[in-house]
Design goal:
Elements lengths: L8 E5 L2 E5 L3 E7 L10 E9 L9 E6 L2 E9 L2 E5 L4 E4 L4 E5 L4 E7 L6 E9 L10 E5 L5 E5 L2 E7 L18 E7 L4 E4 L6 E8 L1 E4 L4 E4 L3 E4 L5 E5 L3 E8 L7 E3 L2 E3 L2 H12 L5
Antiparallel strand pairs: 1-20, 2-3, 3-4, 4-11, 5-10, 6-9, 6-11, 7-8, 7-10, 9-12, 13-14, 14-15, 15-22, 16-21, 17-20, 17-22, 18-19, 18-21, 23-24
The structure holds fe (ii) ion.
Fe (ii) ion binds next to β5 and β10.
Length: 281
């Protein structure tokens, strides 16, 4: 890689329509045939609708083991509750970073009967040594999340540190994640640095951007995985909003089945057995 290399688009993903939980309509961008995973990310879903029938069923109680679930809301309210006695409501621009670890049963239900509900769920893998860790939470509201204002752009820094030194509130030493929500005014450029060790993607919430020296166009609703390089450069064709997410890959074997993600088939079977014995409750 030469000194001036820029992150380019590696793969453009349109996502597929899916239904999860009790009939929640969503678009799956990571975790389906087009892109099964982008180590350490196992799943990335976008949901957004002002039609209650698309979300009212929510995600009734279900288990997780072996990874982390990250919910980031753009609009509306979601109530979560779990077998460890935690509960709360995530609102617009708020985040919940849940380490399921050795096992949790939780529910995520809309705290509204009408209006717009929109947001994302990201699954972050845990390394073998941490898969059976105690569950834990990092939950932050919009007010807790640092903002950075630049010429033509505005960032919410959920996790990671920008070149200008703004630090995110979510900590994760294993994958050292970047999770930025960026608004970029049309005809402006955004640049920063993603560590060379990290796998990265952007997801366009609204607008249209041009990435890298190859000038690849990425449109609303598309996810673009990025090559490794030492400088990220994004140009907005229109007023745009997008997420930039990156993390250090684990480079470990992945065995997944439904709500469990482990390293081996035996560990998956053990997870089902433990869940059936009621060990998650
Ligand atoms: Fe869940």
């Amino acid at each position: 890689m030469d000194i001036s290399s820029k992150n380019e688009v590696k793969q453009l993903i349109n996502g597929i329509k899916a239904s999860d939980g009790d009939g929640v309509q969503l678009t799956r961008l990571i975790g389906s045939a087009n892109l099964m995973q982008l180590d350490p990310f196992l799943l990335f879903d976008a949901f957004g609708s002002d039609q209650p029938q698309d979300y009212i069923g929510g995600f009734p109680p279900h288990p997780h083991r072996g990874f982390e679930t990250v919910t980031y809301m753009l609009a509306g309210k979601m109530r979560h509750q779990d077998s460890a006695g935690n509960s709360g409501v995530i609102e617009a621009d708020g985040v919940q970073w849940m380490t399921a670890g050795k096992g949790i049963i939780h529910s995520e239900m809309p705290e509204q009967e009408q209006g717009l509900l929109a947001g994302f769920q990201l699954w972050v893998n845990l390394p073998a040594k941490d898969k059976m860790t105690e569950p834990k939470y990092q939950e932050k509201s919009a007010d807790d999340i640092s903002q950075e204002i630049r010429e033509g752009s505005q960032l919410k820094v959920v996790s990671g540190t920008t070149q200008q030194g703004t630090q995110g509130v979510i900590k994760n030493d294993t994958i050292a994640p970047i999770y930025w929500d960026i608004k970029l005014t049309k005809q402006h450029n955004f640049s920063d640095v993603i560590p060379c060790t990290h796998n990265a993607f952007i997801y366009i919430i609204s607008g249209e951007v041009i990435i890298g020296d190859k000038k690849t166009k990425v449109q609303q609703g598309q996810l673009a995985t990025l090559t490794h390089a030492d400088s990220l450069s994004i140009w907005a064709n229109y007023d745009s909003r997008f997420l930039l997410i990156a993390g250090k890959p684990l480079n470990e074997p992945v065995e997944r089945a439904g709500p469990f993600v482990m390293n081996t088939r035996e560990e998956i079977e053990q997870a089902f057995a433990d869940y059936q014995r009621g060990e998650f409750a």
